[in-house]
Amino acid sequence: MAESAALQDPKVRIAAAALTLFTERGFDAVSVTEIARHADVAQPSIHYYFKTKRALWEAAMFELAGRLERASAPVRSMVAAIDCLSALKAACSVLIDRAADTPELGRVILAEGQAGGDRLDWLMRNVFSGMYYEFLELVEKCVDEGHIKPYPPYQILMLLHGAAVTNFNVAPMVSAVFGEDPQSEANVAAYRTMYLDVIFAGLALPASKPKKAKSGKARD
């Protein structure tokens, strides 16, 4: 109900439309005219509320950040109360859920991560820095405590993130090729289970072998 009421606000509709179009096609490929049409507002309304296309893009990214924060906040308190390996698995589970219900996250990271430049710098300062660095600290702690193999932590992070989001970033392709909806509740649950099994089996350190008893001559 609250979300429906918010969408009656032209500024909210414009930001939501901009988020959809920017994450589907990228900043340069989207015009202000298209955003106005998608939001069902007159084009001057966009300039009234946001002044420039870049300001509108930033507002759309803040909208995305708000969605992620609202979804992730309850998890942080839970993660703080468990061991770091369980916390890392829980964080990965949440990442999969966020990628499934907010595919814009992975799309904007892919688009701006490939392009580089000022917009990526802005995203890392204002939207993604906390998410990435908190995740990285958790990976580093798991490596330091010997829970997972000592690969470079940033590479582990990129593996965890890429494997979590790609399936949902290319949902239309998955649907076209395999006839499956990766965002259905059943498929998200199955993917989460497979991800945790495969990824953490590969990262797990081999079980330590029991030490052999020293041989020696028995005394009389």
UniProtKB/TrEMBL annotation:
<dbReference type="GO" id="GO:0000976">
    <property type="term" value="F:transcription cis-regulatory region binding"/>
</dbReference>
<dbReference type="InterPro" id="IPR041474">
    <property type="entry name" value="NicS_C"/>
</dbReference>
<feature type="DNA-binding region" description="H-T-H motif">
    <location>
        <begin position="31"/>
        <end position="50"/>
    </location>
</feature>
<dbReference type="InterPro" id="IPR009057">
    <property type="entry name" value="Homeodomain-like_sf"/>
</dbReference>
<dbReference type="InterPro" id="IPR001647">
    <property type="entry name" value="HTH_TetR"/>
</dbReference>
<keyword id="KW-0804">Transcription</keyword>
<dbReference type="InterPro" id="IPR023772">
    <property type="entry name" value="DNA-bd_HTH_TetR-type_CS"/>
</dbReference>
<dbReference type="Pfam" id="PF00440">
    <property type="entry name" value="TetR_N"/>
</dbReference>
<feature type="domain" description="HTH tetR-type">
    <location>
        <begin position="8"/>
        <end position="68"/>
    </location>
</feature>
<keyword id="KW-0238">DNA-binding</keyword>
<dbReference type="InterPro" id="IPR036271">
    <property type="entry name" value="Tet_transcr_reg_TetR-rel_C_sf"/>
</dbReference>
<dbReference type="GO" id="GO:0003700">
    <property type="term" value="F:DNA-binding transcription factor activity"/>
</dbReference>
<dbReference type="InterPro" id="IPR050109">
    <property type="entry name" value="HTH-type_TetR-like_transc_reg"/>
</dbReference>
<keyword id="KW-0805">Transcription regulation</keyword>
<protein>
    <submittedName>
        <fullName>Transcriptional regulator, TetR family</fullName>
    </submittedName>
</protein>
<dbReference type="Pfam" id="PF17938">
    <property type="entry name" value="TetR_C_29"/>
</dbReference>
